[in-house]
């Protein structure tokens, strides 16, 4: 399948010496929904801004539809659409005025603007509110309008930087549905950055995990999860009395156990090659022999959280909660300003 995006050896070093992107390489096939997954500061937004021409790379080869990004920037801008983390909506204008203004930025004829604006607003369920000032829109409506504005010139590739950050679960699911429709109905290639594990798992055909500017894993979500083991057992002990290392060694010797890892909340994560139901009784028997009590145990299939922890050595949860709080506070500040 022909590639829509090709990146080889991309490096970005800022003037202060910060290396935001450190030699990453990947490709995105036409019609694919590709996810770049990682925490704040991992290099996601820098990568996407380089690909759409907002930032210059320090090194690397980059092509959109086979065209060199640096050699033909105008052609790249016509082929791509971009919706940033922060919505670029003017709340002093109506929904119709916002999307029409974007059409004029692309020098589209008036009739094309009207036709395409109508098409996009209907697709994103905003047509009935098109004459309302966007100051009256909810956060989810603003995000939907922002994505609609990015599509007014009918790009072949859509870049979405954290498209559901700060949105509630129901609105997030709605955005996922719209993204899938864009691929299904328009054959669009979609490049998504996110730090939501579930979003990457449900939405993306392939996922690249980026950490400290490097891609540490890249495959389909199912392949990434299958690669770390069959099942994951979470278990919490008491009575260890400082013998954590010895306990981990003994658990690691149990049949079918692949790895034993401590978690941030003081429990242990036991990754097994086969069905975890067979391993749990063995853990209880081992603890009986050692005089250790199991206070809690749970069993689940591997998730992208487990994949992320495996490749980076830490969980994403703290970063998620911090960014959620920041995003919601930003939305509230915006609403407060509009209320003045």
Would you summarize the structure shown here?
With 340 residues, the chain is of the alpha/beta class. The chain contains 12 helices and 14 strands. It has 2 domains: 3-224, P-loop containing nucleotide triphosphate hydrolases (Rossmann fold, 3-Layer(aba) Sandwich); 229-301, Alpha-Beta Plaits (2-Layer Sandwich), CATH 3.30.70.100.
Give an account of the 3D structure.
The chain folds into two domains: 3-224, Rossmann fold (3-Layer(aba) Sandwich), CATH 3.40.50.300; 229-301, Alpha-Beta Plaits, CATH 3.30.70.100. It is 41% helix and 26% strand. It has twelve helices and 14 strands. The strands form three sheets. It has a six-stranded mixed β-sheet, sandwiched between helices. A four-stranded antiparallel β-sheet has the order 2-1-4-5, covered by helices on one side. A four-stranded antiparallel β-sheet has the order 12-13-11-14, covered by helices on one side. A hairpin with a 2-residue loop joins strand 4 and strand 5 (67-68). The model has no long low-confidence stretch (mean pLDDT 88).
Write the layout of secondary structure elements.
Elements: E1 3-13, E2 19-29, E3 33-37, H1 44-51, E4 59-64, E5 67-68, H2 73-79, E6 80-83, H3 95-105, H4 110-123, H5 139-150, E7 157-161, H6 169-186, E8 189-194, H7 197-203, E9 206-211, E10 214-219, H8 221-226, E11 231-238, H9 244-252, E12 257-262, E13 268-272, H10 276-290, E14 293-300, H11 304-312, H12 317-339
Parallel strand pairs: 3-8, 3-9, 6-7, 7-8
Antiparallel strand pairs: 1-2, 1-4, 4-5, 9-10, 11-13, 11-14, 12-13
Helix pairs in contact: 3-4, 3-5
């Amino acid at each position: 399948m022909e590639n829509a995006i090709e990146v080889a050896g991309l490096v970005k070093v800022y003037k202060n010496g910060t290396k935001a992107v450190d030699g990453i390489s990947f490709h995105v096939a036409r019609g694919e929904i590709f996810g770049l997954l990682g925490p704040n500061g991992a290099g996601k937004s820098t990568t996407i801004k380089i690909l759409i021409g907002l930032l210059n790379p320090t090194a690397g080869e980059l092509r959109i539809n086979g065209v060199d990004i640096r050699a033909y920037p105008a052609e790249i801008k016509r082929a791509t659409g971009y919706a940033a983390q922060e919505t670029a909506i003017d709340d002093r204008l109506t929904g119709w005025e916002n999307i029409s203004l974007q059409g004029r930025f692309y020098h589209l004829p008036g009739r094309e603007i009207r036709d395409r604006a109508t098409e996009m607003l209907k697709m994103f369920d905003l047509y009935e509110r098109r004459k309302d000032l966007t100051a009256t829109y909810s956060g989810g409506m603003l995000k939907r309008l922002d994505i609609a504005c990015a599509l007014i010139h009918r790009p072949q590739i859509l870049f979405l930087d954290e498209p559901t950050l700060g949105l509630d679960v129901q609105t997030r699911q709605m955005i996922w549905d719209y993204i899938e429709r864009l691929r299904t109905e328009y054959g669009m290639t979609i490049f998504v950055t996110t730090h939501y594990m579930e979003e990457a798992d449900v939405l993306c055909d392939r996922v690249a995990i980026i950490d400290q500017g490097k891609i540490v894993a890249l495959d389909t979500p199912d392949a990434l999860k299958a690669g770390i083991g069959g099942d994951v057992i979470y278990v919490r002990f008491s009575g260890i009395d400082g013998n954590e290392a010895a306990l981990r060694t003994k658990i690691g010797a149990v049949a079918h156990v692949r790895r034993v890892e401590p978690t941030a909340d003081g429990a242990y994560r036991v990754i097994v090659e086969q069905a975890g139901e067979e391993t749990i009784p063995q853990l209880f028997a081992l603890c009986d022999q050692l005089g250790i009590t199991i206070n809690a145990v749970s069993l689940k299939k591997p998730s992208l959280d487990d994949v992320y922890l495996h490749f980076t050595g830490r969980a994403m949860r703290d970063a998620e909660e911090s960014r959620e709080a920041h995003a919601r506070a930003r939305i509230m500040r915006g609403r407060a300003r509009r209320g003045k």
